[in-house]
From TrEMBL:
Organism per entry: Cereibacter changlensis JA139
Listed GO MF terms: magnesium ion binding; xylose isomerase activity
Catalytic activity annotation: alpha-D-xylose = alpha-D-xylulofuranose
Subunit structure: Homotetramer.
Note on cofactor: Binds 2 magnesium ions per subunit.
Name of this protein: Xylose isomerase
Sequence similarity: Belongs to the xylose isomerase family.
Cofactor: Mg(2+)
UniProt entry keywords in alphabetical sequence: Carbohydrate metabolism, Cytoplasm, Isomerase, Magnesium, Metal-binding, Xylose metabolism
Classification via InterPro entries: Xyl_isomerase-like_sf (IPR036237), Xylose_isom_bac (IPR013452), Xylose_isomerase (IPR001998)
Length: 433
């Protein structure tokens, strides 16, 4: 045990009227919504990197945090894990997520780095034995070290491709050993700055082959979880191969992986791609590749990924409506890919940031469930497209331009526009917030 969170109580549900900041007002794990416990709907996960590895830096300034576990030793990594599980227990968090670089120190050689990873994975496994918290997903950090400055799977150097593939193998092994529900590929630098030094065809084909290897290895080791890609636009490279959901789906189709890989969608990344979060979720659900989500928010006055905790339940309700409408999570969940502000230095800040995020999501889920259960929005949508349910409309889709032309002329069609009723539906939505 450590004393980092000394005197901070376990967070319990006390209801909307509570004024206790160390309590949940909306997140009641056992509350049943649409036939399922709230905890099982939301499947909250804590991000190891932002909560325990982040030092408080941003693009314009360095470290502001001083944590007792900061350091490059095995002992520091074990302390970090101990602190992490103490926080998981305080929050009652059902899951966590990690990159390999978050949990283990870098070694002088690949073999030493792998040994360090295995040592810390064993330590985490021991901590999991006495905790309810499980692993939602693991992933490899193939972007921070200078060797990945030109990408990992898309790197022009085949030795870096090989190093990256070997690293993913070790991380998949770690995820399997810890009982992870998913494995994520996050291509932080799988993109390019300029075409002057880039072979697009080679890089995309290598990325496709890399992912095929990952899927093959999943079956070889008997990993039952889902392989996920996290769309990532613009940051840090201008032209990202996994820019958004549509781009990722096209990539999966190209390499015959659309039935093997799903997506982990982040709110902040959706915004950087010029989309709304709910658009990316709805599109992924429509394509059958919605797997999991990273929950955070961006500062809309900033042009980079600020990774702030969610605090707008109306905005989040739009997202959870799409999740619920798609049938909800199976292997996936809600990972807080969010970090404290660099001026938030205290242990209490780390706990309360998660309390607020969990409450915001819980309140959003309840609003989304009420509207879905009411059915008014889905009825309005069905009414708008009702014409396509007629035998004539269905037959038209199987006919030719010549046949359609003849029919329009024969019927002397003069169709008139019909209101989309957007404002009325926005008013309907607001009644449930």
């Amino acid at each position: 045990m450590t004393d980092y969170f000394a005197n901070i109580p376990a967070i319990k549900y006390e209801g909307e009227g509570s004024t206790n900041e160390f309590a949940f007002r909306y997140y009641n794990p056992d509350e049943v919504i649409l036939g399922k416990r709230m905890e099982d709907h939301l499947r909250f996960a804590i991000a190891w990197w932002h909560s325990f590895a982040y030092t408080g830096g941003d693009p314009f300034g360095g470290q502001t945090y001083e944590r007792p576990w900061f350091g490059d030793s095995i002992e520091a990594a074990k302390m970090k894990a101990d602190v992490a599980f103490e926080m998981f227990d305080i929050l009652g968090a059902p899951f966590f997520c990690f990159h390999d670089a978050d949990i283990r120190p870098e070694g002088k050689t690949f073999a030493e780095t792998t040994k360090n990873l295995e040592t810390i994975v064993d330590h985490i496994g021991q901590r999991m034995e006495s905790s309810k918290t499980k692993l939602l997903w693991g992933t490899a950090n193939l972007f921070s070290h200078r060797r990945f400055m030109a990408g990992a799977a898309t790197n022009p150097d085949p030795e870096i491709f090989a190093y990256s593939a070997a690293t993913v193998k070790t991380c998949m092994d770690a995820t399997l050993k810890l009982g992870g529900a998913n494995y994520v590929l996050w291509g932080g630098r799988e993109g390019y700055e300029t075409l002057l030094n880039t072979d697009l065809t080679r890089e995309s084909e290598n990325a496709g082959r890399f992912l095929q290897m990952v899927v093959d290895y999943k079956y070889k080791i008997g990993f039952k979880g889902t392989i996920l890609i996290e769309p990532k636009p613009q940051e840090p490279t201008k032209h990202q191969y996994d820019f958004d959901v549509a781009t990722v789906y096209g990539f999966l189709k190209r390499f015959g992986l659309e039935n093997e890989v799903k997506v982990n969608i982040e709110q902040g990344h959706a915004i950087l791609a010029g989309h709304s979060f709910e658009h990316e979720l709805a599109l992924a659900a429509s394509l059958g590749i919605l797997g999991s989500i990273d929950m955070n928010r961006n500062d809309y006055q900033s042009g980079w990924d600020t990774d702030q905790f969610p605090n707008n339940h109306g905005e989040m309700a739009l997202a959870f409506y799409e999740v619920l409408k798609s049938g909800g999570f199976t292997n996936g969940g809600t990972n807080f890919d969010a970090r404290l502000r660099r001026q938030s230095l205290d242990a209490e800040d780390l706990i309360l940031a998660h309390v607020g995020g969990m409450d915001t999501c819980a309140r959003a889920l309840k609003s989304a469930a009420k509207l879905l259960e009411d059915g008014a929005l889905e009825k309005a949508r069905a009414d708008r497209y009702a014409g396509w349910e007629t035998p004539e409309a269905k037959a038209m889709l199987g006919s030719s331009l010549d046949d359609i032309y003849a029919d329009v002329v024969a019927k002397n069609l003069d169709p008139q526009p019909v209101s989309g009723r957007q404002e009325r539906l926005e008013n309907l939505w607001n009644r449930f917030l």
